[in-house]
Amino acid sequence: MECHVYYEGDDDPKKCTARRLEKFDKAILYRRMAQVPYGVVLNPHAEQALSPADADESLETVVALDCSWESAEEASFRMNGVHRALPFLVAANPVNYGRPFQLTTVEALAAALCIFGDQDAAEDLLEPFRWGETFLTLNEEPLRRYSECADSSEVVAVQEDYLADEESA
Fold first, then answer.
1. Which residues of the chain have pLDDT under 70?
2. Which residue, of 16, 18, 80, 124, has the greatest Cβ tally within 10 A?
3. 86 assigned binding-site residue
4. Which part of the chain is the RNase L inhibitor RLI-like possible metal-binding domain (predicted)?
């Protein structure tokens, strides 16, 4: 599965995971939305959760949006494709460590690859980041459970377990 990123360029270039992915030839960046290929778009505003079933739609592309969380409005995600939201996961990046749903671009792409059952590709994608392995370790159980689901409704049911645990913590 290929990783593609629509890059808005409003993050600190030194902390931008999408630019680092491009530097290591692990993702293709697009600066114009019209250039972004059709695929599974990781969109936190999507109505359906990402599931292994989305990999079966003969889509060879996962697309992420790289922008600051402040500007990640619904309008930012007007790309062609099958829009899916990532389920509950915890960030391992130094800026948002331990915060649920506050993933960097590389964490989001790696999570999608894990949910699609491609752990090796996720590890390869995270390799240039010193905290990359930590992301997989922190989220090992939920990523495994999500990857075992048949569809979006099962992913949401698993996510509800984690959200209930988060509320009681």
1. 57-58, 68-76, 169
2. 18
3. yes
4. 3-29
